[in-house]
Design goal:
Helices cover about 40% and strands about 20% of the residues. The chain is of the alpha/beta class. The protein has four domains: about 80 residues, Barwin-like endoglucanases (Beta Barrel); about 45 residues, Up-down Bundle (Transferase, Pyrimidine Nucleoside Phosphorylase, Chain A, domain 3), CATH 1.20.970.10; about 210 residues, Pyrimidine Nucleoside Phosphorylase, Chain A, domain 2 (3-Layer(aba) Sandwich), CATH 3.40.1030; about 80 residues, Alpha-Beta Complex (Aldehyde Oxidoreductase, domain 3).
């Protein structure tokens, strides 16, 4: 049937969406979420259908969102031909996963291909995530999912024999080790192309913090040039089409915070595989308020990482670290960037826990190459690189190559929180301190967050400053005052 297209000046992301009024939809026997083929004289695309009761859309008129209109290259006055499109075969495979069947490489490939080509609706992708969550993914399924995600996205290839990468499971405020590790390892002559995430539920992701200093949205060809020129980069994974399917699946996982273990592993490993990493360090912080709460859970995850890494041909090391308190002092993009630069500059006020953990991680990566007889030797080389200023100079090269930004100051609205009693700090509530930082405006307001002065084990006097809350919006302090912020530190 030929219909009159009407442009709807709204962008909805990567999806191709069309709208019919109820009468036209009924005439064509179409329903919401059906797929339709929309054809012009030269182009055809598949769109997801929505149906409206509103009068703005006339009979035998089809509303096209901006992406769909632009993709078809339409001009006013032109008609389009619309007919029903068959459901993709991958729908059948998603049902199989929901029923508990093990999917073959070919079936996983088909699902991911349809995800990338926008042939699956959000509902269908959600069912796939649900199937993986309730039925699980075997190691072979996880490896095949990893390879499919990389296959249907760009991949950066390098001639270097050793390509390094690292990943932290997360759940710890601060912990901005990537921004110290990458300049150290690239200063030592290793290739380290690092894609990082933005915050979803935390006060800042590595990409949010790096964006305070440099541009983090770059196309794959530019990133390859940057890595070949200065040894590496720190960029936002969502800003470059290296694992497009993963970004779409993360979007539908987010509302219910669904993290199917196999899908989580595939997501992490796909990001590494897409930059050709073959020497990878995985950091699993453990703590009662973190993502990984017990040693048993950490060991289980470690065994799966090692198994999948082996199947992908990677040399992979998994470490367990302390996830009971923030790493560094700053929590929030600008405050974390200040920490990183202090560590790289070797200033007296640099957070020593961030420095120590970064050095340890670099030493583990060096030791993974097999070129060093002991971790102590590797750690000495790393420490010299950092304390000599080489790593700081290298960070400046990376920032310059990605596109330098003028660093903002922390939010000018501030509130200090003081110890109400003298004693020893026995616990810091990670979840609460992250919640305070987000309520202050982080990561959207990148100058917002919390700067802590005391850590677990420190002794404090009554009235001594524990932390400062920064915000770019004074109104937010009214919301912060509703939180039990005085319970952030436990002092005995």
């Amino acid at each position: 049937m030929f219909l009159h297209p009407k442009r709807i000046p709204i962008r909805v992301g990567n999806k191709y969406i069309a709208i019919l009024n109820e009468k036209t939809a009924a005439t064509m026997d179409l329903h919401p979420e059906d797929r339709i083929h929309i054809k012009t004289s030269s182009k055809t695309l598949t769109a997801i259908l929505d149906v409206t009761e509103r009068k703005e859309l006339k009979d035998f008129q089809i509303g096209l969102y901006a992406e769909t209109w632009d993709k078809l290259g339409l001009k006013k006055g032109k008609k389009v031909h619309v007919n029903v499109a068959p459901k993709p075969e991958s729908d059948t495979y998603i049902k199989e996963k929901l029923m508990g069947k093990t999917l073959t490489k070919e079936k996983i490939d088909a699902i991911i291909k349809d995800v990338v080509e926008d042939d699956l609706s959000d509902i269908e992708m959600t069912y796939f995530v649900s199937g993986c969550f309730t039925r699980g993914l075997s190691d072979n399924e996880t490896v095949n999912l990893t390879k499919a995600i990389v296959k249907y996205g760009n991949k950066l290839k390098f001639k270097d024999r050793i390509i390094m990468d690292k990943h932290c499971i997360g759940g710890v405020p601060g912990n901005r080790t990537t921004m110290v590790v990458v300049p150290i390892m690239t200063a030592l002559g290793y290739k380290m192309p690092k894609t990082s995430s933005r915050a979803i539920t935390s006060p800042a992701g590595t990409a949010d913090t790096m964006e305070v200093l440099a541009n983090v949205i770059n196309e794959a060809p530019k990133l390859k040039k940057i890595a070949n020129k200065v040894g590496g980069f720190i960029t936002w994974g969502g800003g470059v089409d290296l694992a497009a399917a993963d970004d779409r699946l993360i979007r539908v996982r987010f509302p219910l915070k669904l993290d199917p273990e196999g899908m989580l592993l595939a997501s992490i490993m796909a990001k590494k595989f897409s930059v050709s990493a073959n020497h990878v360090l995985i950091d699993i912080p453990m703590g009662p308020e973190g993502k990984i709460k017990t040693k048993k859970d950490a060991k289980h995850l470690k065994s799966r990482f090692l198994s999948i890494g082996k199947k992908l041909g990677m040399k992979l090391k998994v470490i367990f670290t302390d996830g009971t308190q923030p790493i560094g002092n700053g929590i929030g993009p600008v405050l974390e960037a200040i920490d990183v630069m202090r560590v790289l500059k070797n200033t007296p006020d640099a957070p020593q826990d961030l420095k120590k953990k970064s050095i340890m991680m670099c030493a583990e990566l060096l030791f993974l190459t097999g070129k060093y007889k002991s971790r102590q030797t590797a750690e000495k080389i790393v420490t010299e690189c950092l304390e000599s200023g080489q790593a700081y100079k290298q960070m400046q090269r990376i920032i310059q190559a990605q596109g330098r930004k003028k660093m903002k100051k922390p939010g000018h609205h501030q509130m200090n929180v003081f110890a109400e009693r003298a004693g020893k700090i026995v616990n810091i509530n990670n979840k609460l301190i992250a919640n305070i930082s987000r309520t202050a405006g982080a990561p959207k307001d990148n100058g917002a967050g919390v700067y802590v002065y005391k850590k677990t084990g420190d002794k404090v006097k009554k009235g001594e400053k524990l932390f400062t809350i920064y915000s770019e919006n004074k109104v937010r302090f009214d919301d912060i005052k509703k939180l039990p912020y005085k319970n952030t530190y436990k002092i005995n």
